[in-house]
Amino acid sequence: MSSRFRSFVRLSLAVTAISTSVTSCAHQSQSADRVFRVCADPNNLPFSNQAQQGFENRIAQLLAKDMGKRVQYTWWAQRRGFIRNTLNAEVCDVVMGVPSSFDLALVSAPYYRSTYVFVSRRDRDLGVKSFDDPVLRRARIGVQLVGDDGANTPPVHALSSRGIVGNLKGYTVYGDYSQPNPTARIMNAVENGEVDVAIVWGPTAGYFAKTHQIPLLLTPVSPQIDLPFLPFVYDISLAVRRKDKALRDTLDSLLVHERPAIGKILDEYGVPRVESVKSTAVQVTPEDLT
């Protein structure tokens, strides 16, 4: 075999390898373009779970369909380090629910607004509507705690500022991840009489109230803002990386377009929204199951 022929063979192989590599990269790029990559918690109903039964799963599917994409999840428990290990690690591109004031990412326009609610058994007829209600000084009160260290939530601060401390019982938002639906524990405590009343983030309360055999009463807390500035009502947005402004703008447009469909999903999951709640209590019974 002549040296000229050997050189020709080597050149041909090199060209073939480069062509194959370029084709492979182009295919991978096209595949990536067809994927809506979502960062989500695998055990956090009503928001999301690995079986994709949460309302955030449903909304992600809706937005992906509009973009001609399929949803691909990166599952990670929403504990400390969630954003660092998912969105900022660039293994996924969108978080489906964060407060609109969230400062660790670029947020979309709000797509719903919800509130903390008082939860009690309907047959107890406690009638709690305000943090200033005298009933709270003698009732056993369930409150949500967050973080691995059980940090206080806004309702705990509101009660503490009123000297209501000794009758509180904490339930971590995270719960025992070896069990399904860990956020439901505080709602179970109301039903079984472990506490008289609980103060729960609205979407969690609205969803799990529908699953209980004993009718529960959900009442939006009052005031909405405890002065000087302790809010109990929050706008909720999507989150993307700060550099992904084009994606954020696309999502903003889709959220406007799909507002009616998103509203129907939120209603189906019992999410109380501030713009639709009334001053009177919302009665949730097993017959409301859909």
Structural class: alpha+beta
Pick out the low-confidence regions: 3-9, 11-30, 276-290
What general outline do the C-alpha atoms trace? Answer: elongated
- How do the SSEs run, as a string of H and E? HEEEHEHEEEEEHEHEHEEEEHHE
Q: Tell me the name of the CATH class of the largest domain.
A: Alpha Beta
**Radius of gyration, taken over Cα atoms and rounded to an integer in Å:** 24 Å
* Count of individual helical segments: 8
Shape-level CATH architecture of the largest domain: 3-Layer(aba) Sandwich
Name the helicity range. Answer: 25-40%
Instruction: Tell me the strand percentage band.
Output: 15-25%
* E-strand count: 16
**How would you sum up the major sheet?**
12 strands, mixed
* Rounded mean pLDDT score: 86
For the record, the count of structural domains works out to 3
Amino- and carboxy-terminal Cα gap: 78 Å
Describe the model:
- This protein has 290 residues and is α+β, with helices and mostly antiparallel strands.
- The chain folds into three domains: 1-33; 35-112 and 236-268, Periplasmic binding protein-like II (D-Maltodextrin-Binding Protein, domain 2), CATH 3.40.190; 114-232 and 280-288, D-Maltodextrin-Binding Protein, domain 2.
- It is built from eight helices and 16 strands.
- Strands 1, 4, 5, 6, 7, 8, 9, 10, 11, 12, 15 and 16 form a twelve-stranded mixed sheet that branches.
- The radius of gyration is 24 Å and the shape is elongated.
- The model is unreliable at 3-9, 11-30 and 276-290 (pLDDT under 50).
